[in-house]
Write a structure and sequence with these properties.
alpha/beta, TIM Barrel, seven-stranded parallel sheet, two-stranded antiparallel sheet, 45% helix, 13% strand, globular
Length: 285
Amino acid sequence: MNTPAPGAPSPAAPAAAAVRSWLYVPAVRPDLLEKAMRGDADAVVLDLEDAVPGGRKGEARAAAAEAVRATWPKPLWVRVNDVRGAHGAADLAALAGAPVDGLRLPKCESPEQIDAALRLVDAPLHLLFETALGVERAYELATAAPRVALLSLGEADLRADLRIRADGALDWSRARIVAAARAAGLPGPVASVWTDVADPDGLAASTERARDHGFFGRSVVHPRQIGPVNAAFTPAPDEIAGARRLVESLREAADAGSAAWLDDRGRLIDPAVVAQARWILDRTG
């Protein structure tokens, strides 16, 4: 496979980078797909894996193959089964040649899984790291093909594989894929699902923490989770105004022949600080 230079952005990265909320919908529920497309999620993920029981995989596969050929008002990605297994191979065969907006690859551990997907489906890839081995190989896999667009952890599976109980024990893995994504020139990783749908306050706090630690966007499993997630990844008006002031102060400093300066509150401002401000403004469109 072709390997992009470290730090080179994926061709698929810009569109995917703007998505704040990714709503999972079981592929066997076309009624929910239509409802999701009318809702507030930025993108929808048609799920062929965890949300579909073994006896309905064929039905889900056929529904997905039909859905990706329809016209929708927002991106429709598909999470296939592990491509190393029979269900995953059949998923790829059913989607071969279809205009798929993007594929999520679960339990990603090797370049061979990426290659298997791209041989049949020419689409941006979202790699899900759900094992210790996947996390260890995050940068290698992030740079395994130009079509790799996004990274995520599958935290429930990873927690089981690592045999850990405390949520904080995943912080090392979270930081690892943030670094891997940025080193590969990709957007910040998409945060994993918050499984307690009845705890919106916990979701909001967790999402804000993920944002502050380098993640952008989050997968959700219920429409009521979309609002807190979208809010966390939408810059506040005062944040936007502050970013604009910083960018303008850079222009003024450059005109004065300076690359670093103190603002009106006595804080040191340099190009690295302004780069953060530019990123905020980029997210506002």
